[in-house]
Specification:
single chain; 384 residues; Rossmann fold; Hypothetical protein af1432; 2 domains; 15 helices; 5 strands; rod-shaped
């Protein structure tokens, strides 16, 4: 029966209902209603594809009934044809304004009525098929979106793992300060998130900045591959010549990452990574190395990593010194605000210091979603 279509005849005149029943009963499943209220009550259970609706009825008229049908949950799947003894242009327009799909004037030709019924049932069927296809398409699109997100996340995780492993190749030369790369990442992110919410750099730090910083900060000392082990691991004070050799690591690191960036193209996290590697030993007062930049000339990401790097160097045991207590390290950094460090970043550090202290030994905090660092950086004779 469902394949033939379901039709709801709505008319308070039994003769009119009988005429329509005789025309349609052999071909379609029929239901009747004597007024608008009864029509609306039967639609949810009967679920007609077509409603043949008289206009002049007791209670709510056909126009209002049509509007309520069309505004219901099933309305988009129901064709409504108004059947009326009045056929003026104004009355027809009123019917279409009530969202009727067609208008038939009584008395009607039986063959014409059958043709209209067939057309509107085909339209109703097409609407249902279209809705089903749209639903399937939405499911497919959602599945595809999830797959794209999953593949993108897998690609990003693989890239992060590769970058992190590359950074570890440098740090594996000194296994003394385990966790350095992850802590640098954690401290840098913590500072950047604080700066995003307060201070002068709020507009400069967005999601892209945080993501690039997260991925690029572990590469800050990759240039130390060019520093001889005898210098890198020296327990005593460095000679001026040895210190000059150490200084070369920022140039080597910056050049290496810039070459990599030029290969993959600009617009990736490698832009920031190259800046961090080259400029994270610049000082806010211009006395750092190797370009002698000062203040805002130093890229913001490099200024952030500079403080994170020094804090970790101070609070980690090295072959030339024991680990300092967090409070002592904090005071050293505060004392160097405006000289070594950007005062705004020092202020942010002071505001989030408890996160630094709490996260120092918390692998869940500083190794989130990243490869665990197995070995870390050595900094001979001072936190230069």
């Amino acid at each position: 029966m469902d394949a033939k279509g379901r039709i709801l005849i709505v008319d308070d005149n039994a003769t009119n209902v009988d005429i329509l029943r005789r025309i349609l009963r052999k071909r379609y499943e029929l239901e009747t209603a004597a007024n608008g209220e009864e029509c609306l009550a039967k639609i949810p259970d009967f679920k007609p594809q077509l409603v043949l609706l008289d206009i002049m009825m007791p209670g709510i008229d056909g126009y209002q009934t049509c509007r309520r049908i069309k505004s219901s949950a099933l309305g988009r799947f129901v064709q409504v044809v108004l059947v009326s003894g009045k056929g003026s242009t104004a009355e027809r327009l009123q019917g279409y304004e009530a969202q009727a799909d067609d208008y038939v004037v009584k008395p009607f030709d039986h063959d014409e009525m059958l043709s209209k019924v067939r057309v509107h049932l085909r339209l109703a069927g097409a609407q249902r098929e279209l809705a089903a296809a749209k639903e399937e398409l939405e499911i497919y699109a959602n599945d595809l979106e999830r797959l794209v997100v999953q593949r993108t996340q897998q690609w990003a995780a693989t890239q992060d793992m590769t970058v992190f492993a590359l950074a570890q190749l440098t740090d594996s030369r000194d296994p003394e300060t385990g966790g350095h790369l992850c802590r640098i990442r954690y401290y840098s992110q913590t500072l950047a998130e604080q700066l995003q919410h307060s201070g002068p750099y709020q507009t400069a730090i967005d999601g892209r900045f945080l993501n690039d910083l997260y991925r690029g900060s572990p590469l800050h000392d990759i240039g130390k591959v060019a520093v001889p082990d005898a210098i890198l691991r020296k327990p005593g004070k460095l000679t001026p010549e040895e210190f000059d050799a150490i200084k070369l690591h920022v140039r080597v690191g910056g050049d290496t990452l810039e070459n990599a960036r030029n290969y993959v193209g600009r617009g990736t996290f490698m832009d920031m990574a190259a800046d961090i590697a080259r400029y994270h030993h610049e000082r806010y007062d211009g006395s750092g190395y190797s370009a002698g930049l000062r203040g805002q000339e130093i890229p913001l990401a490099a200024r952030i990593v500079a403080l994170a790097d020094v804090y970790d160097a101070l609070t980690s045991p090295r072959i030339y010194k024991p680990a300092y207590e967090p409070e002592r390290a904090r005071q050293i950094i505060l004392d160097e605000s405006g000289t070594r460090f950007d005062p705004a970043i020092v202020e942010a550090f002071s505001a989030c210091f408890e996160k630094f202290r709490a996260g120092a030994q918390d692998e869940d905090a500083w190794a989130q979603a990243s490869v665990q660092a197995a070995a870390v950086e050595a900094e001979p004779a001072g936190y230069f």
